Amino acid sequence: MEEGARSCLLQSRSSLEQDIRASYLMDHMISDGVLTGDEEDRIRSKPTRREQAAALLELLLRKDNQAYISFYNALVRESYGDLASLLHNSLPLVSPEAEKSFSDGGTRYVQAVLSEGGVPQRPVVFVSRPALMNRVREKLYRLQKEPGWVTVFGMAGSGKSVLAAEAVRDHALITECFPGGVHWLSIGQLDRSDLLVRIQSLCFRLEQQSQEKDPSSSLHRPPGSLEEAKERLRFLMLRRYPRSLLILDDIWDSSVLKAFDIQCRVLLTTRDRSLAECVSGPKSEVAVESGLEEGQALEILALYVNRKPQRLPEQARSIVRECKGSPLVVSLIGALLREFPDRWAYYLHTLQQKKFKRIRKSSSYDYDALDQAMAASIQVLSKEHRELYIDLTVLEKDVKVPAKVLSVLWDLEPEEVEDVLQDFVNKSLLFRDCHHRPYLYYLHDLQLDFLAEMNRSGLESLHTKVVRQYQQRYSQGPPTSGDEECLYWFRFLTYHMAKANLTQELYSLMFSLDWVRTKAQIMGPAHLINDYLEYSTILDKEVRGHFQEFLSLNGHQLEQRPFPDVVQLALSQPDSSEVYRQALLQAQERATRGGLYLDWVNKSSLKSLSRLVVQPHQGSIYSACFSHDGTKIASCGSSKTLRVFKSTSGEKLLEIQAHDDEVLCCAFSPDDRLLATCSSDRKVKVWNVERGTLMRMFEDEHEEQVNHCQFTNTRRRLLLATCSNDKFMNTKLWNINKPSSQNTMFGHLEPVNHCCFSPDDAYLSTSSSDGTLKLWEVSSANEWKSIDVADMFSEQREQTEVMVKCSTWSAGGRTIICAARNAVFLWDIETSKKMADCSGHLSWVHGVQFSPDGSLLLSCSDDQTVRVWETNKVHTSSAVCLKRDSDVLFNNGDITVVAADNRNRLQVRNGRTGAVMFQSENQESRICCTAICSQTSAMPSGTSLATLQGHTRAVLHCQFTPEGHTLITSSEDTTIRVWRWRTGECVVLEGHKEQVRCFSLLTTTPSSETHLLSWSFDGTIKVWDMSSGERLQDLVCHQGAVLACDVSPDGQLFATTSADKTAKVWSSASWECVRLLNGHQDCVRSCRFSWDGRRLATGDDNGEIRLWNVKDGTLLKICSRDNKDAMDSLHGGWVTDLHFSPDNTVLLSTGGYIKWWNVEKGEALQTFYPTGANLKRIHVSPDFSTFVTIDNIGILYILKKVE
To answer: Quick one: signal sequence residues (predicted)?
Structure first.
């Protein structure tokens, strides 16, 4: 060995001895031919890991350069990157002759490329299959000039992975075709979250290697979604690693493969040769035989027992014939013979005599032979190890577990567990995924089948043992590390309890709000919902319903980061719910320790109509539909993708990159085998649901975007209807087997947004931007009926046009439901009368559909949610909702709320219960604002005391003076009026040039006269003498509209905020600006002084809140979430109102939701998520314990601090 290499080893010796596990490294070194079996045995004989490491290093110092290089490569492969870096600079140069001496035939360059790319080493026992390998290499050479796919397919265990790794172990192939490198990724059976983790890991590895080569390149944060991960991988493969090869090992699912459809060079191994049909680009394939030829199988056995094939006993040929050359069975028997080389007759007899009739699967090996090999393998284990191996019966198929899980199960130290597992791996009784650190272990399906059959009578006790060991280890609470062990327990603890028949303990676990919170935070809500569905027959029906409803309706909140307070979310559940009961107890306990929680005291007056709320896409969702069997929902939107998920839990099943532009609609065919999509790219496509492949495309007839598509409901005569933004020819019928449309409907002169067949396919409904819903006869294409939906929005129709977005028919064909704006309407077809309506979406509704049996209603919206409604509740709901402009009186513990409703009536409600105390008759004109006098004491009678006329346009704000004799109003007509409302006397304050949205009373000293401060969109503040109407001051405050103003408690200062993104503080004595507050990046919409006058809070349209020092104008804190939410805001919308607590320690803010902040730290104390959004104003009781507001869908919230 070169002196430099030897010196480096000696200098690094202590670090190496402390960290390396010699047994892991020696496999690689034996494979490279630099270590013998005897040397390995001598090192393994050392009693401790550290002594084994020391012995390996001592041996290494006596060897040559080749051993140093092999040791270095072993460190790299086993993820000892930090230790390998210690040896890197002293790597000796190798002569061309020496390069060829590597036992696997690769040069040092090949070794380095494959090690960096994570390509597995050649197995210790290896037999070349040159014909197969040459066929793979021939296909790989076709990728030299362009991207494409090479599929290596065959039965499980047929050697596909070894073949793929061996094919790229070629110097000429790498240098000529893949100079960018070879990158290996093991896949297996994954769900979407696991797939994301794999791609994240690959991207990190590629970026890290790129940074080592080019220090100027930077590492990015891990991609947060599959779409982002796919784009990141596309960038890395095309820009940083052009002409590189990506090897995807063990692909099972086409949806997984599509995540790698990024126009690069891919070699994949799989059992399903048809998988590559779902991706684009040139494709070729190589079939791998299920069994080895007799000579190859004998060579494997010979290598295991260290003999020449000709010297093997006759039983060897019989063993190969008995197992039909199965590579896995041959390896199992070979591993056994390596330890007991004189047992040929015994293992042959075992294979021939013992038959397990239950296991016969034509899709895999010869099961009988495998089972016999399994039985023989287990029998050679020590008694202790045999008992441990039997415990593995409890594992689920296709699940990989870390050693830590088995450490809990076996109550052993992790190092001891790893030694046991290594023994199992060496005997081919267990498989190890080396691409994870720590390693993950798993059993083949056939091995699990065998164990389950062998231990059928003891399964319950084995699962009980798992549960008891878990409870003993985690008696203080479940693990929360988020590592593989933690994920295993959260995913499978309920499974083990159910299998162990521990019903009461399963009940206690799944009906615990603590468990729900922790599991939802780590794994998301879909897994929890699936648990409640899977174990529904075991669990109490009523309580299960409470938890399932809570998760179904709040799942989209539980997906948010930072993670919401589950106790606060649960306090919005009905009082009778077990979820609410547990949440209230926890909230009360935490309140004693300073926690802040709000109880929605009037929630009993509101029934939730939604059944499930999910957020399947990033961006607006334009369409969602049930499959005809009701088990699946398809959705699509601005993300350009089509997704299919379970209707019970929201678990994703399929994803297709469907179009080049926004996908506006999706629809199932009657047999659920096809899905149609249409897009802004003017194309209509028909997809095979099972495979996710494109079946048909229509791209010529529609000249504008295609808004909707719908299949007929019966298979008798399959037609597809489409509608578009075309001026005249905007509704078409298609036979999907013909290239052109069959018929066109004429009648709408504006874009048609939606079309839908009646249940018997006799009629087609169309929804248009002209505000109408039309019904057509399918056979003749003639118009049958027309309904003017725009009439339902008479008060808003003057402001903007009403577009009917969509419609759908009930199962009986007697009812049709349609959506316009954010409302949903039900109509009786025969009478053309509205039956009911419902609201819940925060933005425009794009699609509605009944479930096949009519019991559920599906809707999707710009608010990024899909909602499932119970139809019977929608029918019986009162469609009355309140307007957001309200006033509240807090008087000696009593709370009175006054607001207008959507039927133009004035309502007075009890603030304790939400009950209606008084309701006026319908008013002729729209009620824009309300005010309640603080001197009110009697129950409202409904008698009109005065009608004050004078304003020429809408009145925007009104307010009584404290004594109650004077009423002040401001209007769109730019004036303010001061009324002696009992006599009708009026003082008009004129001077603003634009509408006056609000005003405030200004008293500089207790003894001084009260003046009026008003502000307007004209950018000015004006001060008035209310008695004379004289304008005392006229201040041009901002370059943009003045959006808010607040007067300090002592009246000496007032603050203004503006659309010009600034806030200013003014003196009431000098009327000059004393502080200019810059820093907001959007319109500053709200402001509030603290009660001590020392701080000013300002909020903007980006959801950001800033706290300022009033004395010197310095910025104290910025209150905001960690990142923007789904509504692209830091607060779910504009910050519209702010309030300080009396002690100035807490700040309350409203926007898309309500937040309470710690003033000193600028950190959120609590968040309340309303059903709706866009909260306009919140009323706060003097003691800061009660909060009243109304959201944009008219729901009243009376929130009381939990004491």
So the answer is: none
